[in-house]
Amino acid sequence: MEFPLMAPHWIYLVRNSDVLGTLYSDVPPLESVRLRSFHLDWRGPALTLRIDLPTYPDPDRVPLEWSERGHDNLQLQVQFVAVEDLTVRGWIPTVPVDISLAALPCRRILVRIAEVGFEFSFTASDSLTIGHISSYRMTETRSDEVPHSFVSRLDTRLFTSPPGTHESTFYQ
User: Fold this and answer.
1) Which residues does 169 contact at the CB level (< 8 Å), separation at least 6?
2) The whole model's pTM is what?
3) How far apart, in whole angstroms, are the C-alpha atoms of residue 29 and residue 11?
4) I need a labelling partner for 130 at 20 to 30 A (CA). Which of 19, 21, 59, 82 fits?
């Protein structure tokens, strides 16, 4: 049996990585990320993960407004398309998780998240899209249900924090 090769750093698979490139000199790996939600879109078939990255950008790379508000977390969505072979077992863990990507033939990747009591895996195209990037100050309870500052002007006009997962315009 052949094992998949490790994929390059995830940011090299992102079609629209320029925004993260302005916020980070080194975009963090998908290790110790906080998985907030996932959304399945049957029309894709597509899958969107909403995650908090493990490190916050350097203060000199973020908008002054974010620093003035004491923000300490960066949240974004990562969308995968042409999703197949989806497996989900258990509940989304409350602890940070590692998202591993492994290269497969035909420009595909294997995405896997494994934590005690939780298994999540699927295959997808190796072309990722990021969106709905926001910054916020996490509460003591680790909740993200607080005001966010969004990078996108449209998101800023429509939302003050991530809406419920029923809001399809935010998760598709």
Assistant:
1) 158
2) 0.90
3) 8
4) 59
